[in-house]
Recover the amino acids of this structure.
């Protein structure tokens, strides 16, 4: 096989990507600072920044004093260069949000969806309501749909990115090879990105939250489903076929309780919120209300004996599951999130850490920090909105077939539609 040679265009794209990524994650910086952090020459920085300012991708945003010279202009990624949408496909509703490139939320929509034959969300209904939600947030923000650089969607299960459009496999929701990417692309010209919901939250926490600054981390999500996003050396680990991160379906108890996936003894069968709520309902005599766990944990004073035992067991199972992640990946940081994960962590984080310490190897555990997510329990849509931003940064704001002419927003939107996250 002939090896592709690196061209001048490739180098230009890589240098622009380096500058753009540094500006996005590092905040406002001068040209001098960008030269220091990217190791590019000042001439290269000036030329490339000049291009991106002409394109509207970068803008000047204030001045900073220098040692005895003229004040230097501070630069930033222009918030209004384009907009990104993100969505969370839940069990009974979709949530859609719209952001500018400063990650200021400009639109929000939440729409119920029908239940499918397998008990999970109906794929056709989900696709229809996702597109409806996209229209709603664009209208709320008062922008043109052509200004939307991409629409990221977070879903439960494994997302196969190997074909022309993402396909979703989720035993727990009954989605067996659902071509969600194609279904959405058939209904809009906005570029579509589909990813596992835990991975979208993981990216958001690594960029803006509790994972910021770590190179090796695992972000775990505990809700009705249980998943994880694994980051190794600063890069998301997907596995050979995008299956990595199904932490909830690792076996905790051989031959144990039946999980939603059909197997026995999965971690999700012991710490998934539906299972915990069912146990709490049994010991309290209350209805298995989705808010029962939060209500119990928010109560003042000591927990009732039966409730305390359910929570103690759940914390123990969660700690044991986290210990497995410590032993397998030896991360710098484990970040606990999701609705149930945060509810448990806000009150029992020391107990969760103790349970993890009892079950993990001492040396790797001593080098791991366990923290709570900082972006809240419902960060899937926000995380999904980072998917088109990641593509923008990786491409340096250039279309896939880069030419000498500056790129318009519409041209960049077309280039995104040919790529995948």
């Amino acid at each position: 096989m002939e090896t592709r040679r690196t061209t001048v265009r490739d180098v230009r794209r890589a240098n622009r990507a380096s500058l753009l990524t540094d500006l996005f994650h590092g905040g406002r910086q001068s040209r001098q600072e960008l030269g220091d952090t990217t190791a590019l020459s000042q001439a290269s920085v000036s030329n490339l920044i000049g291009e991106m300012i002409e394109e509207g991708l970068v803008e000047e945003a204030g001045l900073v004093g220098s040692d005895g010279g003229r004040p230097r202009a501070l630069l930033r990624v222009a918030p209004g260069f384009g907009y990104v949408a993100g969505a969370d496909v839940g069990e009974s509703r979709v949530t859609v949000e719209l952001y500018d490139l400063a990650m200021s939320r400009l639109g929000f929509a939440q729409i119920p969806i029908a239940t499918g034959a397998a008990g999970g969300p109906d794929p056709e209904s989900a696709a229809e309501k996702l597109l409806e939600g996209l229209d709603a947030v664009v209208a709320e923000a008062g922008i043109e749909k052509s200004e939307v650089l991409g629409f990221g969607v977070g879903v439960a299960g494994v997302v196969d990115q190997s074909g022309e459009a993402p396909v979703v496999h989720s035993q727990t929701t009954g989605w067996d090879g659902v071509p969600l990417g194609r279904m959405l692309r058939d209904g809009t010209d906005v570029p579509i990105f589909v990813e596992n919901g835990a991975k979208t939250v993981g990216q958001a926490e690594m960029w803006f939250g509790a994972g910021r600054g770590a190179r090796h981390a695992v972000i775990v999500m505990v809700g009705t489903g249980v998943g994880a996003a694994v980051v190794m050396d600063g890069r998301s680990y997907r596995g050979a076929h995008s299956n990595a991160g199904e932490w909830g379906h690792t076996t905790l108890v051989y031959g144990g309780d039946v999980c939603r996936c059909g197997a026995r003894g999965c971690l999700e069968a012991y710490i998934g919120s539906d299972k915990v709520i069912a146990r709490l309902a049994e010991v309290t005599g209350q209805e298995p209300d989705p808010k029962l766990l939060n209500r119990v944990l928010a109560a003042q004073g000591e927990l009732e004996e039966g409730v305390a035992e359910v929570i103690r067991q759940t914390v123990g199972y969660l700690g044991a599951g986290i210990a497995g992640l410590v032993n397998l990946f030896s991360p710098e940081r484990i970040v606990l999130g999701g609705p149930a994960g945060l509810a448990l962590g806000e009150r029992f984080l020391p107990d969760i850490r103790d349970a993890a310490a009892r079950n993990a190897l001492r040396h790797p555990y001593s080098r791991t920090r366990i923290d709570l997510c900082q972006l809240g329990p419902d960060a899937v849509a926000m995380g999904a909105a980072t998917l088109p931003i990641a593509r923008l940064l990786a491409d340096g704001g250039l279309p896939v077939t880069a030419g000498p002419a500056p790129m318009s927003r519409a041209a960049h939107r077309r280039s995104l539609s040919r790529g995948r996250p």
Confidence is low (pLDDT under 50) at residues 401-408, 417-421.
